[in-house]
Amino acid sequence: MRAYGLAILLALGLVGCADSEPNPEAVASIVRGLSATPESIDPQLARSVASAVVLTDLYEGLLTRNAEGQIIAGAAARWALSADERKYTFELREGLRWSDGSTLTAADFVRGWTTLVADDTAAFYADLLNPVRRNGDGRLAIEAPDDTTLVVTLTAPTADFLQRLAHPALAPRAQGEARFNGAYQLEQYTPLGNITLVRNPYFHAADSVDIARVEYQPFEQEQTEYAAFRAGTVDVTSRVPRAVFRQEPRPDSLRTAPYLGVVYLSFNMRDAPSASTRLQLSAAIDRPALTDTIIGRGERPAYGLIPPGVANGVLPFESRLQSVDPVESGSQPAGELTLHYATSDENRVVAAALQEMWRSAFPDLKVTLANKEFRVLLSESRAGTFDGLMRRSWIADYNDASQFLAILKSDAAANSSGFADARLDTLLAAIDSTNDPAQRERLLHAAEQLVAAQVPVIPLYFFVSKHMVARRVAGWQDNPLDVHPTRFLRLLSE
Questions:
Q1: For residue 432, is pLDDT > 90?
Q2: How far apart are CA 193 and CA 254, in angstroms?
Q3: Candidate ranges 168-182, 311-325, 366-380; pick with highest mean pLDDT
Q4: 332 Ramachandran zone, left/alpha/beta (phi>0; psi -120 to 50)
């Protein structure tokens, strides 16, 4: 068996730590903005980026991420992989406890993972456990032979399996009422309001957690969030208004970095226009104008779903889709089309620009813009009840190119389009079941070409992460996943 664990991660320098010794007596409090109200803070039920930000503070999986977004040991101290690369054995840290002081065991991970894939849970992230073998009774092939050992059997070698384990959805689950095993525990949760966390004294690394209290404040409008930052009532924002990027000089507190995320438009393929019409709508979009003029914060045009800088296992992957060729013949789009988008300044401006581009290209097409609250849009997306097009985005849960194509798998929870193609499902299954980078690259290119030809979605642009970070916040590290656990931050003296 090949052994992995904390010792190797330490040797690689992947275990994050504060750049100075924390003061355990200090009572430090930070206020962090959220781009939306989390729809859930149950790790097995949540699905949004806003929820994941909060859950990263409340829970810890077998593996977790450091300040740089890199994988490090979490609740597992070490692990080993069998020679056939199909069985992982994880050994938990000694003395793990829940936030009420009760013992946390390997059985709690079995409970969490089983809940995630249960039919009555209907979890958005159940796909994360697709590589795990099912037994004859349909149950996951996971065992807890004792309190500190978890054995997981895979169907086939899976290049990105360890990456998946840091996702909040694969957190353990306590028996009975909610408890937490992360650096923080929940103090107050007001639906549609603020969420307050306090340091968890039973967290295995509690002595290294400098900030004692975290308040998460949702903002529907980025201008309102920015105003709160300027007023000093928010320390870190979740986004930044476009106007800030036009300031000269730009504020010192502005932080931007490449980000593994894509914005796209999703057709409802249950009642969609023809492929020719879909392609014409895509080709009529001036993506460089969107990124350079309309938004102007460093975003890059997207002609496919896979962003630059993403990994193919351990190697980089580069998309071959660099343009959209217009249709040479066929009737032009006409009639009516509705574009649905969630409330925000950026979404409104981009939607208006798309409306104008299509109006200029297709005079007989009437495009109506439908602005909706985030929760409503999320519900309609999942139910597939919207008409026309919906503005969507996908943020990588871990750094692997397959993440972006998997949202179109026929049974994927993220597949708002209802697109189903057995050829794509077969390609994605093959990608998941090989560790050979060259083979994965060939399969990934074939899959993205298939999607480009079918046009179930129209990629628009790739994200950059953008935050305002107060000068008193130290330890912030830009990274492609835009992961910033509060446990690795500290506050400087005023």
A1: no
A2: 26
A3: 168-182
A4: beta
- Is the per-residue pLDDT at 8 higher than 80? no
Classify residue 249 by burial, with Cβ atoms within 10 Å: 0-12, 13-18, 19+: exposed
Q: What is the dihedral of CA 112, 118, 123, 124, to 10 degrees?
A: 110
CATH number of 2-217+469-491: 3.40.190.10
Do 257-465 and 2-217+469-491 fall under one CATH topology? no
pTM: predicted TM-score of the whole model, two decimal places: 0.82
CA 369 to chain centroid: 26
Q: 8-22, 81-95, 396-410 — which is least confidently predicted?
A: 8-22
Structure tokens at 288: 């460089």
Q: Tokens representing 125?
A: 């992230």
Interval 405-421: pLDDT, tens: 999 999 888 898 999 99
Rounded to whole angstroms, the Cα distance separating 50 from 218 reads 9
Round to whole Å and give the CA distance between 407 and 404: 6
CB-based burial, 373-386: b 16+ in 10 Å, e otherwise: ebeebbebbeebeb
Amino acid identity, position 185: Q
pLDDT in tens, 372-429: 888 888 888 888 889 999 999 999 989 999 999 999 999 888 898 999 999 999 999 9
**156, 432 Cβ separation under 8 angstroms:** yes
Tell me the C-alpha distance between 23 and 209, whole Å: 9
pLDDT of 333 strictly over 60 = yes
Whether residue 474 contacts residue 491, with contact meaning beta carbons closer than 8 Å, is answered with yes
Q: Where are the domains of the chain?
A: 2-217+469-491, 257-465
E strands, 44-169, are: 63-65, 71-73, 76-81, 87-92, 142-146, 149-153
- CA gap 475, 235 in Å, rounded: 13
Q: Measuring CA to CA, which residue among 172, 138, 154 is closest to residue 59? A: 172
CATH 3.10.105.10 assigned to domain 257-465? The reply is yes
Asked if 365 and 359 touch (Cβ cutoff 8 Å), the reply is yes
Distance between CA atoms of residues 237 and 30, nearest Å: 11
Would the pLDDT of 25 be above 70? no
What is the structure's pLDDT at 329?
A: 67
What burial letters (b/e) apply to 347-358, b meaning 16+ CB within 10 Å? beebbebbbebb
Residue 243: strand, helix, or coil: helix
Sequence length of the chain is 494
> What's the token pair of residue 189?
């949760």
Q: Report in angstroms the alpha-carbon separations of 146 from 86, 180, 443.
A: 20, 21, 40
